[in-house]
Amino acid sequence: MRTTPETSPGPIDSASSRRDFLKATLLTAGTAVAAPSLARAESAAGPASKFPSKQQPDEWRNRQPGMAYRRLGRTGFMVSEMVLGGSGPLNNPERAAEQMEAIERGVNYLDSSSRYHRGRSEEGWGTLLSRPGMRDRVFVATKLAEYHVLMERLTKEIFEGLPADKQRALQETAEAMIEERQVRKPGYLFHFFASHGNDLPGAYLSYVIRREYGFQRKWRKIFEDEMTRALEGSLRRLKTDHVDVLHFPHGIRLPEELEDEIHVELAAKFKQQGKIRANGFSCHTDQNRTLTRAAELGHIDMAMVAYNIANQGSLEPAIQKAARAGMGIIAMKAAAAINPISESLKPVPEWRIAKLNHTLPGDMPLIQKAYLWALQNPYISAVISEIPFKEAIAENLSVVGRKVELALV
Fold first, then answer.
1. Is 305 exposed, middle or buried (0-12, 13-18, 19+ CB in 10 A)?
2. Rounded to whole angstroms, how far apart are CA atoms 130 and 109?
3. Where exactly are the structural domains of the chain?
4. What is the pLDDT of residues 193-222, one digit of tens each?
5. Angle of CA points 113, 114, 118, to nearest 5°
């Protein structure tokens, strides 16, 4: 389904459009390993949430000729097919001018995180957003990176008070869960940065501690106070009184992290206070299982997931389920499979480049080809690009609004 400035995708009812896409993409995934089957959630939480999100009407910002827009799920935000993220301007006048050029061409969604450059990314976007009229032209998203740090710090206090044999038992249980779910399996866990996956033991250990000992009553106020301070710090750096999307948690590692009771309550409270308009999460690890669970829970508005030519086979069923449940999906790392940032992940396996070139033949730079490929998925709302230099603006934005045929192997 092609999306233009004059059309917006609602619920996708056309079986043929998706069938065509799956024929051209899933059948080319012979080198990708399918995700393990979804394990039964250990939480008793059902699919209904105490704080359900309702479908919102279309909301347009910075609508420009030549840019294509798609609906970000139930939020109603009509976002540009290419959105801006990563480090941001960082108060660099040259970078700010480049980002402004992208905005003038119709880009209307800016993504950041409290973790990026220790808050300097948010400060850079804040300088841009403080220009007259700018805040009303764009949707702003940020991420609370502090959630996992706090959760693991509090569960560590329990762990350190336990006898050595109990500590070993909990660690063995955590490792057994990792192995059972096969979240490290090559082809399912794609390394998008050098340390990717190193945090899995700590994340699972923190979860099994919470599962066994429960969410401590004393944690509630600690979480509320620290997460509120973190969000207010982001708003201060961004020079705004609210963000349109808050990724909370940021960089989720296992689906049960979506079900921490304080997470659900705080997301709802932040909405009620007007500090956020939509809640989401970002994810690089065990994406199939996590995105599937998010769709089932029903209170999460959108997700940012790493999606590209290398991991499509394991992720596309979950993307489709989440989109049909009303979630907006932004694809990050769309070009990372063929252009990794970390030198330790080079050289790129030849099969990835060959697969992309075969699926999408033609004379085009590989990075733009990767973005164009991702945008052929009608369940994706947008792809995110850092656009690191001036020349990349025209190159990357050249793929928006284009409908192409994807070749079979």
1. buried
2. 15
3. 15-397
4. 667 778 899 999 999 999 999 888 899 999
5. 115
